[in-house]
Amino acid sequence: MPRPSDGPIVSPKTSARRGDYQSLDNEIPQDEQQLTPTSTSTSSLTKDSENDFHQSSTTSERLASRGQPNDADLLSSDDSADDDANEDDVRLRPLRSRNQNADGNHNLDTRRGPVRSSYNHRAVLVDDTPSGSSSTLLPKEYEREGNGNEEIPVPKEQRDVGKRIEGFLESERRTLLAESFRTDIEDANTDFVFSDDDEFDYENEDEYGSPIKPRRRDREGEEPRWKRYWSAIFGKRTWWHIGGFFVGAILLIWIALQGLVWYRGDRQQGYVSFFLLLLLLNGIGLGLGGVRSVPWYPAPMGGTSSNWSESYRKAHDMVERMSLVEKVGVTTGTGWQMGLCVGNTVSTPSDSPSLCLQDGPLGLRFADNITAFPAGITTGATWNRDLMRARGKSLGREARAKGVNVLLGPSMGAMGMMPAGGRNWESFGSDPVLQAVAAAETIQGIQKIGVMATAKHFVLNEQEHFRQPNDWGTEYAISSNIGDRALHEVFVWPFAESVRADVASVMCAYQMVNNSYSCENSKLINGILKDELGFQGFVQSDWLAQRSGVQSALSGLDMSMPGDGLAWANGEALWGRQLTAAALNSSVPMERLNDMVTRIVAAWFHFRQDQWAKRGPNFSSWTDKKMGKLHPGSPDDHSSEEVNKFVNVQESQHAMIAREIAAEGTVLLKNINNTLPLSRTAPSPDGKYRVGIFGEDAGPGKGPNSCADRGCNQGTLASGWGSGAVEFPYLISPWEALETAWSNDPVDVRSYLSNDIAHQDLAEQDLCLVFANSDGGEGFIRSDGINGDRNDLFLQRNGVNLVESVAQKCGDGRGRTIVVVHSVGPVVLDPWIDLPGVHAVLYANLPGQESGNALVDVLFGDVDASGRLPYTIGRSLEDYGPAAQVVYKTDDQVPQVDLDDGLYIDYRHFDRHNITPRYEFGYGLSYTTFDFSDLRIKALQEKSRLPRPRQKSDIAPPAYDSSPGLAKDNLFPSNFTRLAKYIYPYLLNTDGTDPGKYPYPEGYDEKQEPSEAGGGPGGNPSLWEGMLELSVKVTNTGTRVGKEVIQIYVSFPEGVVEHRGISKSREEIDFPVRVLRNFDKISLEPGESKTVEMTLSRKDLSYWSVRAQNWVLPTEGEFKIWAGRSSRDLPLVAEF
């Protein structure tokens, strides 16, 4: 039945303060349609029944404690979501040809796994009344296993959840165990012992993993140990470490001797100078060995924020009742494909929740009857805060109505440092402020509905090549190396705003940061995220991004996903029963485990999921059929239950929001002689107007779901590929929408949906619309020779030749050509954009299911062309600089990418080196014209160098009994029926559980000083105090209604210096030419003016000082405040 509307989506504001996020009052639907199931089930953990933990085929009353929404939750409410969990998914990353067919394509279907549940379902009716302009093309209802055309893709069951993956998993497991991960996998009847899986890591766990010496058994085909060690020690990269060490040691000895001689000669000043030189040169020598991440221990405990205090109080009461295995069950996923969602945890007798975690950033992955929203990059191109919030809210509605607790999005990493990066399209653009605003608005929207959002991927997940060990023949994942300042000012900035927006979960990434894996990097998680940013939620791993057991726990990881540790779906975990043993033998302190559990449960309470109707998810990620298995990853599960209820969560309003975002995210780059907007009835002199539509990208191809996870480039491009993609309910192609728009007799529309066009097809056209694209995605899929990261920035599938041919031959050179580009990121346009025949260019990004309708809205002027570029379009890939190049090949066993210029991302690099881009960041034309005037600024307080000192919280974290109990109480219950490959927290035996003194890692200092930059959500609360208020007048000087984006940039004072400690030497601080600090978007009638007011905070005017380890505001010199419509079109400037 029809649902009430939320009213207008966009009501342009005249005042915008970035980051004024409010405490969330979750909107709990008051008029939910109640669906009463005949039975319910969820993943549960109990010692009293052999079936309660994993459930067998009978489900009635088996799992009553799972807190989930009704099947129709929120559908009738007006206010009623990575990595990604898998985000990164969850597919086995393609290593060479191990899992490719003869064509080089993947034949694996690797999806993630959910929570067990079954229930009946009643159809939910939605409003399907058409809305929009008369040219609206109503969606075709494509079947999930179909595509609305002539070709039907292979159903999920035949795509393989089991047999096809089994052989690869076994070879992957052997590779991981024999070559890269040194964990000892014992026989099925013996426990397995913790040891480090990352011997290269500076935060190595070898000596900390277990009081028991790891045991290893010989494995068939394994190299001799001496040979492996020889390779590890004398590999190419390691020589730098050895050389650096000896250079530093020699310099140390020599300078010490010289200093002693000078000192005895009464040259004490010389001694001091030499001592300082000693430290400097020794540091340089040791630095040759590579970048390392410093340790930060112990993990800060949650529950110190007033905003979360009540949630932590409730969590404490629940966690206090839990047994040790219950606690471990909350922190460890049940395993790949061991439930209905891509990630699942068990419920417990203490009433803790069984959580369903599901991708992704633009909609629900592996689910039916959902909305395929425009991608993050398209959303960023709108520069519209209201649409960002509306999209998030719609994502939350659909997630909750499907029974999802944790939505694995939004993504703000990749940041887009590398324009060819495969996953840039999931995020919002190549600027920290644009990313931060879009992420925070999305999070607020999702969590307003009560669904937990996930900020991912933390951090520096900038390329797909080498993100996983062994995928490219290397033992270790790539290390993204970066300095502290660029890390804070660019890559961590959006996560700080996400924490301020109260995000429930943060997902750590696959790759290393400064040679320490992201999910066990204590500086990143403990030091920056939990201490400095004051994060109160839980940190989850990307799927199989956990690289160690004890080390990851001590470094701040709270939840392991999907639960499997070293390989997909093999039933072996780094946590699970290993974490139970680690708590018993004291290698993981009970205080740390209690905090892990409390953070997860507190988030569940914080978003009032304890008030949800107790149902599980009403869909299965692993089958399109109504009946299926609850744990398809286990060969022991022979059940057949109702796993798909086919609940339709698409509200008509969601389609309209998707359409509006796609339209406002379309950027008009070129428009000669007002070629656009088009007329629906403009005839040529002979009474006929001939229009040709050219290119594969204009048509439906084989359907939107013909390739799993959109892992191929065919038909119109509406999404990138990977775990961030969804199965489209329908896709309106440009060809279909244009034929509907030009349905009157005077216009003759002909379509040539191929990239190979004959001259005769072009000769008679008055107007030619040519479509081309550039695709990319996550690295576990290979398509057209692209391994996630694009190989270059050119149009694909012969797109350059197609555009050139059409532009030169349209109407035998007399016709006009309009080019439409769909792309995952920047495309080099120079080969063709200046051709005389190219009259207009539209950059439509990735528009989602309403692609054609949204394009028609812009082409015909039903809405203004108001999109602005969320990145810079250069004239070549080299324009973006050396640090922006993907590392495609390496000889190192530990690939390295040095982001030395990370502070100068995208337009900042172009400005610094005075490179003229083809189109700058923030650029976009309109169908009307605007005038900026009367920029005024007002100081709100005096400049002061540092924020106020951090205030100590008067709220103490929860306290528990630190005793783990007796080992025998954590054994499998008698007569317990186990499912193969399911991850259990129970012990197999009590070996290795005797408590002892544990040698914690170097730097494990329980009196670690908290960061002065911290003290509240996102950082020191004074960082968000207003320093400067500004206003600017904007006037629509044209003849059409239009929308303009007001962009505010800041240039820092010149000559800012810092002193170098006792040497008192001065270092001048380098700044980008200008940086975006705020923006707003308004709508104006012809002749209308509005004064837009904004505020700049202390943080907006500060830089991160590596020496002070704090945000520093320069107090001398003049700031320049710029206002305009792009990073290079800034007509107004004022000084502060």
Automatic annotation (TrEMBL):
It is an enzyme of class 3 (hydrolase). Residues 140-159 have a biased composition (Basic and acidic residues). Its EC number is 3.2.1.21. Coiled coil: none annotated. One of its GO terms (molecular function) is beta-glucosidase activity. The keyword Hydrolase applies. Gene3D superfamilies: Glycoside hydrolase family 3 C-terminal domain (3.40.50.1700), Glycoside hydrolase, family 3, N-terminal domain (3.20.20.300), Immunoglobulins (2.60.40.10). GO terms for cellular component: plasma membrane. SMART domains: Fn3_like. Residues 1-159, 943-966, 997-1020 are annotated as: Disordered. It comes from the Eukaryota. Pfam families: Fn3-like, Glyco_hydro_3, Glyco_hydro_3_C. Residues 1044-1127 form the Fibronectin type III-like domain. Its main location: membrane. The chain crosses the membrane at residues 239-263, 270-291. Signal peptide: none annotated. Residues 36-46 have a biased composition (Low complexity). Keywords: Carbohydrate metabolism, Cell membrane, Cellulose degradation, Glycoprotein, Glycosidase, Hydrolase, Membrane, Polysaccharide degradation, Signal-anchor, Transmembrane, Transmembrane helix. One of its GO terms (biological process) is cellulose catabolic process. Beta-glucosidases are one of a number of cellulolytic enzymes involved in the degradation of cellulosic biomass. Catalyzes the last step releasing glucose from the inhibitory cellobiose. Belongs to the glycosyl hydrolase 3 family. This is Probable beta-glucosidase E. It comes from Penicillium cosmopolitanum.
